[in-house]
Design brief:
This protein has 309 residues and is of the alpha+beta class. The chain is built from 11 helices and 13 strands. Helix 4 (109-120) runs parallel beside helix 6 (145-152) and helix 5 crosses helix 9.
């Protein structure tokens, strides 16, 4: 083996063969992804990705026969515990005694996640809000607690969850939807449905129902608001709910009303298109409307998402 080959081998992860660098080094200008190496184990340098995977791999050690963390890999691909692999280090949590990724000095990610959940879901009494106990249990059962710690470190989910825990908003889909953090609220509502706290809803129908009421409030003409309310309530909502009953879900992108004016000209038609520009309702269901005040403008249905996520 040449010196160049040796140098090349020494700068690659022994498990994934990707290039690695010391955390103090600059990555440089290259199209190749260069990861920071986390450990120098007996078999060579271990990149951050492979180290994280090793810290989340559990099972029966193929050498010792015990059920525990298996960060080591034998010469023939065997999964080994730290004792059998040797030289990997001690990854036992000083609080709970479980092996795994240690988020802080000596404290594993699962213990840190538990502390974070209890602190964020506190109802101001020092305890998790009673109604949110199933949510707390669901989060703590995450297969990768490190992902939960990272998620709960973000300000958006923290803000939403703290407000829910303190009872600042109703514990309903509509109450949680009031927050501007659309991605976080959507994910939190999904978690609450899974935990049994909130009932399941069709997402497309829910977002449309939340959106169209606000859209109507922005129309200055009371006659138009009345016309659209009747049309949406007795026409499209009935069609949407019938589709859900028949197919189990609405089945296409959330519909959205888009108005370029506060009025409709005589003879303007309303219709619903899917993302391919195909009518979702037969021609006989397309309603022709007229405005008492003849001003330029138009209103159409389209399939652009109104979720705002």
């Amino acid at each position: 083996m040449t010196a160049a080959d040796s140098a090349s081998e020494g700068t690659r992860c022994v498990r994934c063969d990707r290039r690695v660098r010391d955390r103090r080094e600059q990555s440089g200008k290259t199209d190749e992804v260069v990861l920071v190496w986390m450990r120098r184990w007996p078999d060579g340098l271990i990149c951050s990705g492979c180290f994280a995977k090793a810290m989340e791999t559990y099972g029966i050690c193929e050498s010792y026969g015990t059920d525990r963390l298996l960060p080591g890999i034998g010469p023939d691909g065997q999964r080994w515990c730290t004792d059998c692999a040797g030289g990997l280090g001690d990854f036992t949590c000083t609080r709970c005694g479980r092996e795994g990724w240690r988020e802080y000095a000596g404290i594993c990610g699962r213990c840190v996640l538990q502390d974070r959940v209890v602190e964020i879901l506190d109802d101001s009494t020092g305890r998790v809000r009673l109604e949110l106990m199933p949510l707390a249990a669901l989060i703590l059962r995450m297969k990768r607690p490190r992902s939960g710690v990272l998620w709960l470190s973000r300000p958006e989910p923290q803000r939403v969850l703290r407000a829910i825990a303190r009872g600042e908003v109703p514990l309903t889909h509509e109450g949680i939807h009031r927050f501007p953090e659309r991605r976080s609220t959507a994910y939190i509502r999904d978690l609450m449905v899974t935990a049994g706290i909130l009932p399941p809803v069709d997402k497309s129908l829910f977002y449309f129902e939340q959106w169209w009421r606000g859209w109507l409030d922005e129309l200055p003409d009371p006659e138009q608001r009345k016309m659209f309310r009747l049309f949406i309530t007795w026409h499209y909502l009935r069609i949407f709910r019938a589709r859900i009953d028949a197919r189990g879900e609405l089945g296409y992108a959330e519909p959205q009303l888009a108005s370029t004016s506060s009025a409709l000209p005589p003879g303007s038609s309303l219709a619903l298109l899917n993302r391919d520009g195909v009518w979702l309702t037969p021609p006989r269901l397309i309603l022709t409307v007229s405005s008492r005040r003849e001003r330029p403008g138009c209103a159409t249905f389209s399939s652009r998402s109104c979720a705002g996520r």
